[in-house]
Amino acid sequence: MLLEAHSRINEAKPVKYWYPLSMASYGVEEILEALDSMCSFRTSMWEKTAEFERSFAKYQNCSDAVMVNSGSSADLLLSFLLTSPPSPRLERGDEILIPAVTWPTQVWSPIMAGLRVSLVDVDPDTLNISLQDLERKITDSSRAIFLVHLLGNPCDMGGILELAGKHGLIVIEDCCEALGSEWNGVKVGNFGLGAAFSFFFSHHITTMEGGMITTNDPELADRLRILRAHGWLRNVDPSRVPAGDDETDARYSFVNWGFNLRPTELQAGFGLQQLAKLPEFTGRRGKLASRFFSYIDGSRFLSRPAVSASGRPVWMALPVLLKECAPFRRHDITAYLESSGVETRPIVAGNLTRQPAARLFESLRTGSFPGADVVHDRGFYVGLSPFVEDAAMDRLIECLEAFMGRY
Ligand SMILES: Cc1ncc(COP(=O)(O)O)c(C=O)c1O
Description:
Blueprint: H1 2-9, H2 28-39, H3 47-60, E1 64-68, H4 71-83, E2 95-99, H5 105-112, E3 116-120, H6 131-137, E4 142-148, H7 157-167, E5 170-174, E6 182-183, E7 186-187, E8 194-198, E9 211-215, H8 218-228, H9 265-297, E10 302-303, E11 311-312, E12 317-322, H10 330-340, E13 344-345, H11 362-365, H12 370-378, E14 379-383, H13 390-404
Parallel strand pairs: 2-3, 2-4, 4-5, 5-8
Antiparallel strand pairs: 1-9, 6-7, 6-11, 8-9, 10-12, 12-14, 13-14
Helix pairs in contact: 2-9, 3-9, 4-5, 4-8
Pyridoxal-5'-phosphate binds at residues 70-72, 75, 102-103, 105-106, 148, 174, 176-177, 198, 200, 211.
């Protein structure tokens, strides 16, 4: 039955697309791991979560990793870490700078945590935060920068860290699209106070839903563990957090406010198996991306993101921008690809201020973001599953070539 299920895994997508956005990257190993948790009646957060956290921290080369139930939850906890008692690093109303092109929960999270978000334009050449606009946007109220390495392209950390140092800004990273990407030989996620990762279906590894926060500060990791689960003391090194008095039962000892954003053991089991497969996935993604981008590099009308000299991206997907000289619009090419069986998406949320939800928040309603507009109006991406076969990549390129042939 299991083998039959495995063979069906990648047929779960609608047949409409021969080049889908994502393909299942899990197999019998992950399914057996999940069954093992169910059959041993250990489904809520337990040893497998702790083991996955340790393995992930080792992979990331950081001291601690705290697993949560999604990448958005990782963004949320990181944000609340900044403003929560005891000894919050930031005060309500302090300003946090975030690029205008990202996944929206990266922006909603600090707003929910009481911070004022100031959006920064992006450089359409890299899709990442514009250093010039970042420098312009830093004010006396700025206290933190929340970066994102969009679709796997590492930000230019040299310039960013210099600015952050000069103005005393905390740096946190959203690495939800960038697992394994490096800048200057260091994995992204190690450049600030903490970093968020996502293990959603289409990401570098999947735990169905799931996420992780990494940090190099064990005390912060414990504070994240407290915020992750009710504000209670379990799963925390007792030597680092003062417990209540003798009257309080340690099993129900609450030392802070908190959420319940815990993952399940099934998710952690998936994570352990997926992490073992990650080097192979990364290698395959690299090969496919090189083939695709070498085609784009020779294209008259299309371009792809520039990578900083110190950057080594592990692309999550394959982003493309229409050059200014292109005699067609984004919709023309994406409609052609969609009707030919290639699934496409805009570059994440585009210019976030143009999303209807932005109107609900005063700080997101104003400002001009010409770089983000270019990404919004001229950008799209296609998927990059490690399970894409060479023949499918060739067919994708032929399909693009056939469209270009019209012009
Ligand atoms: C940059 C970025 N941040 C956060 C998230 C949220 O992750 P999740 O879907 O696991 O909640 C995503 C999801 O795609 C993302 O791309």
